[in-house]
From TrEMBL, chains A, B:
Cellular component aspect of the GO annotation: aminoacyl-tRNA synthetase multienzyme complex; cytoplasm
Organism: Hesseltinella vesiculosa
Family named by the database record: Belongs to the class-II aminoacyl-tRNA synthetase family.
Pfam families: HGTP_anticodon, ProRS-C_1, tRNA-synt_2b, tRNA_edit
Name of protein: proline--tRNA ligase
Length: 717, 717
């Protein structure tokens, strides 16, 4: 959404329906006064930054004035008791107001996390206009303006819960040191001095708090800061291991609740197998263990004693479990046998670790099942794949592409592998989101898991090796979620997996507020929380009295809290709360008598909006190509590629080589612009229907041989 | 409950209210006929065992006859086509009928797991009596009889869903080879032959299935068989590690759901810390680590590479977490900080492992919290202790004693330790069921976890070390549950933690049943299951057609399934189901139109009965003693001991030495009669009020010094 659309939407929330006008219309010889019938004025909005101590947070001054008013910065500075007001630079505009120089309007105030640090100045000559007079505001970096009435502007400003300073610029200009102005300046200076020490400390804290890197500019550092500053994750003194703090662990808990409920319904039972594996068992299936052996961690000592033989920590549990499958399955009546466990596994990777995506210990579930027939096994493979898709779509608000892995990419020792593939827009890389494998009879032959064929009608009996599946989903999910949804202000959490869905912040308290009034406000906030909690909403209040509302806004925004409810005296009078969505940062009001339904509806809408947005983004970044010369450019444009393919491993290897950007020095070199070659991601279950593959006619885009189906390619984590 | 009480209760379930009569009354010159006005007869019940193949299950014959009838075993054998009927021995009476020779009555049929293997013969002359005539039955190994009418006996037999063979013993005696008898014998013989092969196989399976050891006679082997044959647990090829199968894991899941919900409500958040700990961190708190060091497992290799320095697997997480507490807690406003994790920990014990009780890896939750004040910390310590008590009482139907550990027994590095102590009746040993520790400021001083004292009014600021708690509950709970509730027939599970609460078994199908009727019965069973599932009951049906109902009864009984619903054609006609409780093995009927409420009520009653029974048993086994000479005898009588104590470690050591039975060769020597000395278990929170400790007057029972309080002592796991 453009910032122009944002403006229209936020005004609409205040029941302000602005007219809009194209500047071209003005250029076409229609002047402003004609457009603004019966009467009105063009305006300007200016943002200044007074000089402050380097370590302190900036305290910008926003001036809303008539275009015609002469706004002298120096006079204004003196008047406000501030030092050296200068035009704010792009950095400040971006970081504090989420805007650019050519899109400044009063409405960027909605983007400000902490309005307590902002001085809001309104031109007295503007306020003296009639309430119905029209004002034209530039509303975005295009040639559009919006027209609203003076009263509507006043309503908008009131909705911010922010005191304004009315300034008579003409008077300022003519009498720079006039008495009233001097008084105001002196007052402001005194107040500033009084609060200086406290503010300095808080500013310091506030500064440390924010994300210092832009997602677009330094994605790896941004990712790291979002994780740590949101208090999702803590780095740990054993490399490749991380602490999952409550915010992160809760996401896993929600996934667990959903998925475990669904598989229980399917008839899968939970178990727990030991984390230790003997070498003998680990090595039973050679193909399989080859894939894991270099990463296996070995326990060789207990206390001061050496163990008789080293014992491995499970990297996955196929070879741990299947000897027992052989024991437990004695008849076809014991099938299907379906078990699952929630546990951690260890893969001691030596590549650079990355929180959630590549860690030496991670949490997952692993399901292991045995079936009488391939059909039975296959049916389950896709049921589970659907559940994984639901975890992504419905809980994490993330799109995935369901598909089947190529022979080269399938699970070591398995028969075929299905996958949900995610997409990280910032890096243009795909990520394997969860896999559901059909193992065929490979393991059952190795571990001798057999039953007598119940359908055998010949003499004696016939041994039948069972058909097996294994499927797993890990905490990697959380990494995909953070990388996709979060922004320069920090974490953005879909409501369904948020530990705290709603934060209530009392607003409008000043030094002048009586203790009685303050308590009234606090009590009212607690009442709101009680109502929401009763309605099943995960809600908290932030009553810490040493922090300003602005500080708290930042605090909870950084932590991805889906909805912020601001509640001040004006809200109280109007029987409403002000609610700000984390994803769009748009504010809205909810009438008090519709609090529960309003909040729940907003959370649901937000959940859905986040999914739709991510989905549209993924879809827009899957390039359909017809010729090879489109391949690398699309890849470098951070796209995944869907194209007719011959389904040959030789071609797959070739594509990887040909698409590697330059020297093949690994995927770590530059997170934003990886140079590694593209891999096959999956054969999507839903194949394009507009240009179906015509056998013998459609050619593989990479090699020109006959295409078998569409394949999704991409750089990948 | 005596078997006599059992009889009364099972008759009451059939709405049969028997009169009871003491044999003393008969001896006192009142003869039976006088007692049984208007008319009636004394009866006898005989149990014979025909000869069968050694490997086959016995097929006993139960004869209900008038006392006066001459019952010739040889003639009966010929009549039934069975070989050599002889009186059943005590073993068979106990294992199949749960009775003894002098307590045999028709009502022991209720105790039989598999009635399909039993022949039920009723004296024709008894059946020819008037329906209202009274019959006297011996009902237990005491001098009591019960009186019921002939009709009531018929009702009872009908409730068993078991066909009876009516035998005219007089005719048998006079015409041993009479035609009708011969026919019946020939028929029976033919049927027996036909089913021989199939039965032999099933009998073999059935034989393997049951528990071969008695709980009273060989507790360790009994425990092992209950765990493995019930399919709760599987032994594993790494010593000290076990596989938790669904039946066991589900108990842990129920505990998790309950406890996690409760602590979330308290404001505790879930986290996950890595399982690996660096040596440096592990050794930070010396006192603490001393307790764990000999059992720490060390990872020294990954793949083929040696690690730079060995890395430990957590034995507990105090030293893992607290460096981060120091980082996260920056102000008193961050307090209380409360986190919990569900994970596995490793303690590589070298003592004999025992499933659930002493394992090298086990599952637990560990809560770690920090508070501003000791009061705040202490309040939580006891809140958690209450929750642990609720886990035992409400979920596991087990009693515990809440109390405080002695100085000697408290957590290494802690301030004080509270505990819930359980009791294993079969061994007379106590077991520490869960501990909630106040760590005081020991760890916060070691890890420098401080805040500025918010209540300090002096100059500058004052650093305050936080007060910490840690608390843990493990899968050991499952061991206590199995050891306490289970019986010679296998596992007994309280309904609230059972994976399957109700098993529905179709009954009464014979070779004569038409396919249509069979399908009708199967469908009806599925309908029952659907209704119960909808009502929130965890229900399964056992429709396997190769197994007899009796086989299935054993199967599900062994697995502790709380309620068995038998549903046959007679039930269908009567619009009822027959329900058999696992704990009491009593049968009852539930009208079909009250199925849901009836089943749920029965499960609730069972849950409560199991708790009350275990509680009464524990209470009966806590001996109050006044003199030391009562101590060892009480201990050897499998009791715990509650007595006034001086609270001195020296005395505690002395008690242990003096109460060790003989050579101190460890607790492993004999599970049933451990010889190790008694430990202090806890100072119960609820102290006896009948003889309160009078300071300076009441003396320590062990040493004669002044007693401080009552202390619970016992042999302990």
């Amino acid at each position: 959404m453009s910032s122009y659309d944002n403006v229209l939407e936020s005004l609409k929330k205040l029941s302000i329906e602005p007219n809009t006008v194209s500047h071209d219309a003005v250029a076409d010889n229609k002047d402003w006064s004609a457009i603004m019938q019966p009467s009105g004025q063009v305006t300007k909005t200016l943002i200044f930054k007074p000089k402050t101590a380097k370590s302190a947070a900036p305290t910008p001054v926003v001036v809303i004035a008539l275009e015609a008013t002469e706004t002298n910065a120096a006079a204004l500075s003196r008047h406000l008791g501030l030092k050296d007001c200068r035009f704010a630079n792009e950095d400040l505009l971006q970081s504090t107001f989420a805007t650019t120089k050519d899109a400044v309007s009063p409405f960027v105030l909605s983007n400000v996390a902490d309005l307590s640090l902002v001085h809001l100045v309104v031109d007295a000559s503007l306020l003296s206009l009639n309430g119905a007079d029209r004002l034209a505001f530039r509303a975005g970096a295009n040639n559009q303006s919006v027209l609203i009435s003076v009263d509507e502007l006043k309503n908008y400003v009131a909705s911010l819960n922010k005191d304004i300073t009315e300034v008579d610029f003409a008077a300022l200009a003519s009498a720079p040191a006039a008495a009233p102005a001097k008084d105001a300046a002196a007052k402001a200076a005194a107040k500033a001095k009084k609060d200086a020490k406290r503010e300095a400390a808080l500013n310091e804290e506030s500064h440390q708090m924010g994300i210092e890197y832009k997602k677009d500019l330094d994605f790896p550092r941004w990712y790291q800061q979002v994780l740590t500053k949101s208090e999702m994750l803590e780095y740990y003194d054993v490399s490749g291991c991380y602490i999952l703090r409550p915010l992160a662990y809760n996401i896993w808990k929600e996934i667990t609740n959903f998925f475990d409920g669904a598989i229980t319904e399917m008839g899968v039972d939970d178990t727990y197998f030991p984390m230790f594996v003997s070498n003998r068992v680990l090595e039973r299936e050679k193909d399989h263990i080859e894939g894991f052996a270099p990463e296996v961690a070995w326990v060789t000592k207990a206390g001061n004693s050496d163990l008789e033989e080293p014992i491995a920590i499970r990297p996955t549990s196929e070879t741990v479990m299947y000897p027992y499958f052989a024991k437990w399955i004695r008849s076809h009546r014991d099938l299907p046998l379906r078990i699952n466990q929630w546990c951690s596994v260890v893969r001691w990777e030596f590549k650079n670790p990355q929180p959630f995506l590549r860690t030496r210990e991670f949490l997952w579930q692993e399901g292991h099942t045995a079936h009488l027939t391939l059909e039975g096994a296959s049916e389950e493979v896709y049921q589970i794949l659907d559940l994984y898709e639901q975890v992504y779509n419905d809980l994490l608000a993330l799109p995935v592409v369901k598909g089947v892995k190529s022979e080269k990419e399938r699970f070591a020792g398995g028969y075929y592998t299905t996958t949900v593939e995610g997409y990280i827009p910032a890096t243009g890389r795909a990520i394997q989101g969860g896999t559901s494998h059909c193992l065929g009879q490979n393991f059952s032959k190795m571990f001798d898991i057999t039953v007598e064929d119940p359908n055998w009608e010949g003499p004696d009996s016939k041994k039948l090796h069972v058909w097996q599946n294994s499927w797993g989903l890990s905490t990697r999910t959380i990494g995909v979620l953070v990388m996709t949804h979060s922004d320069d202000f920090g974490l953005v959490l879909p409501p369904r997996v948020a530990l705290t869905q709603v934060i209530i912040i009392p607003c409008g308290l000043t030094v002048k507020t009586t203790k009685e009034d303050a308590n009234k406000l606090y009590d009212a906030c607690e009442d709101l929380a009680k109502r929401l909690k009763k309605a099943g909403v995960k809600v908290k209040t932030d009553m810490r009295d040493i922090y300003t509302p602005g500080f708290k806004f930042n605090h909870w925004e950084l932590r991805g809290t889906p909805l912020r409810i601001e509640f001040g005296f004006k809200d109280m009078q109007k029987n409403q709360v002000t609610a700000v969505r984390r994803d769009t940062r748009l504010r809205d009001t909810i009438p008090l008598d519709q609090l529960e339904t309003g909040v729940k509806q907003t959370l649901e809408t937000m959940q859905n909006d986040m999914y739709q947005k991510a989905k549209a983004n993924m879809e827009a970044n899957i390039a359909r190509i017809d010729t090879w010369d489109q391949f690398v450019p699309a890849l470098n444009d951070k796209k995944l590629i869907l194209m007719p393919w011959c389904d040959r491993t030789e071609c797959e290897d070739d594509v990887k080589d040909r698409s590697a950007r330059s020297s093949n020095d690994g995927e770590e070199e530059d997170e934003r612009a990886p140079s590694m070659g593209a891999k096959t991601l999956c054969k999507p279950l839903v194949q394009p229907t507009d240009k179906p593959i015509i056998p013998g006619e459609t050619k593989c885009v990479a090699c020109g041989q006959d295409a078998k189906h569409y394949m999704l390619f991409g750089r990948s984590y």
